[in-house]
Amino acid sequence: MTLPLQGLALDRARTRARRTLVAGVALGSTGHIAAVTVATIAANDLLGSGTLAGAPGASVVLGAALGAVSLSALMARRGRRIGLAAGYAIGVFGALLATTAILTRSFPLLLVGTTFIGFGNSSNQLSRYASADMAPAARRATAIGTVVWAATVGSVIGPQLVPIASDLAVRAGFPGLAGPYLVPVIFVGVAAILSFVLLRPDPYELADRLSVEETEAAAAAVREPLREIVRRPGVIAAIVALVVGQFVMTLIMTMTPLHMTQHGHALGMVGAVLSAHTFGMFALSPLSGRLTERFGPIRTIFLGTAVLAVSAVLAAVAPPSGGDILFVALFLLGFGWNLGFVAGSSLLSEHLEIHERTRIQGLADALIWSTAAAASLGSGVIMAFAGYAALGVLGTGVLLIPILTLRAHRHALAHDHAEPDRGPAIP
C-alpha cells in the first residue's frame, strides 16, 4: 500500500490536483455551454415548431441530476478521479449522439444525447467538492470558489465557438448545427483525459487530515442511515439554500431572453444582459469564497438570499422597456446565486465526514438539477398565464424558505459556528 504523502510532496500533489480540477471545469464548461447555446435552436429546426424547444435544455438538466447520483455512487467505490473522468467521457458520448441526431434529423435521439451531455456537467459541478476535500476547513470556501470560477472560461468562450464550429461544419458539407455539438467532443474529451491521467493520487488520498487508510476504516465502520445524516441542521440548511437558490435563479433567468425579445429589445441588449448574468454567476466566485471564510457560510447564505431577493424584485418591477434595470437584476441574480452556491457547498462539506460526502453531495446536486429542470419548464407556463413579473414575485416568496429554515435551526447552527472573529452566526 502506498504511504500517504506528507509535507512538501503533499502540498505539490494538492496543487497539481487543484489545477487539474480547474482545467477540467474550464474545458468541460466550454463544451457544455456551447452545446446548451444551440439546444432550443436545434429542437426548433428538427420539429419545425417551438412548442418543445425547451425539451433539450431540460434533458441536459435531467442528465446532470442523474449524473450527480450515479457518479457520486461511483466515486464512493472507485474515487473522485474515476468518477469525474467517467462523467466527462459520458458527456462526450452524448455529444456524439447529439451530432448524429442533427445529421439524421432525429429529435428523440437528440434528447438522449443531451441527457448524456448533462453527465459531463455533473463532473463540472462535483469537482468543487473534490477541491474542498483537499482544503482545511478555514480555506474550504476558497477552494470551492476557485473551481466554480473556472466555469467563467466556458461562459465566455463556449458561445463564441458556436458560430465558428457551425461555419466549419457547413464548409465540410454537414448541417451547421452539427458543428456546435462537436465542440464538447473535443473540450469535454480533453477534460476526461486530464482528469484520468493527472488526478493521481486521487483527491480522496490528498484529503485534509485523513489518509486513505483512515478514510477506508471510516467507510467500513457502521454507516449512519442516510435519513439521519440529512436531518443534521447544517446539512438541511445547506441543501435548502442550494436548491432554493437554483430554483429562483433558473425561474427568472430562463424566460428573460424571451421576455426581452417580445418587447422589442435587440439581440445585442439581450446578449449584454445574459453576459452580465453569467459574469455574476461565475466570475465573482473567489469573492464569494473569501466572504464565506470571513463571515461564515450562514451569514453568506443570508447575504446571497438578500441579493437574490433584490434581483427578483427588480425583475418584477422592471418596465418592458427597462433593459438597464434587467441588466442590473440579472447580474445580481447571478451573484446572489453564486454567494449561496459557494457558501451552501462549503456548509454541506463542513457537516459531513469524508466518507459520507459523496452520497450526500450527489443527493444535493440531484435535487439542485431536478429543481432547475422543474423551474425551467414551469417558468414558461407561469409567464404565459401571469406574465414575466409573476416570476419575480414567486421568486421573492420562495426565498423565505431558506431564511425560515436557517432560523428554525439557529441554535444548532450558532453553536457550530460560534467563532470569536465571526460573531453570532444567525442574525
Question: Would you identify the CATH H-level superfamily of the largest domain?
Answer: MFS general substrate transporter like domains
Structural class: mainly alpha
Report the end-to-end length measured between terminal Cα atoms. 49 Å
Tally the beta strands: 0
Q: Uncertain spans, ≥5 residues at pLDDT below 50?
A: 210-215, 418-427
Estimate the strand proportion: under 5%
Q: Supply the CATH class of the largest domain.
A: Mainly Alpha
What is the 3D form? globular
- Characterize the main sheet: none
Order of secondary-structure elements: HHHHHHHHHHHHHHHHHHH
Backbone CA Rg: 21 Å
- Give the count of structural domains: 2
Average pLDDT, rounded to a whole number, is: 85
The CATH topology name of the largest domain reads Growth Hormone, Chain: A
**CATH A-level architecture of the largest domain:** Up-down Bundle
Structure description:
Helix 6 (about 140-150) packs antiparallel against helix 13, helix 7 packs across helix 12 (about 265-285) and helix 12 (about 265-285) packs parallel to helix 15 (about 325-350). The protein has two domains: about 1-220, MFS general substrate transporter like domains (Growth Hormone, Chain: A), CATH 1.20.1250; about 225-415, MFS general substrate transporter like domains (Growth Hormone, Chain: A), CATH 1.20.1250.20. Mean pLDDT is about 85; it is low at about 210-215 and about 420-425. It contains 19 helices and no strands. Helix content is about 80%, strand content about 0%. The protein has helices at about 5-35, 40-45, 55-80, 80-105, 105-135, 140-150, 150-170, 180-200, 210-220, 225-230, 235-260, 265-285, 285-295, 295-315, 325-350, 355-385, 390-400, 400-410, 410-415. With about 425 residues, it is an all-alpha fold.
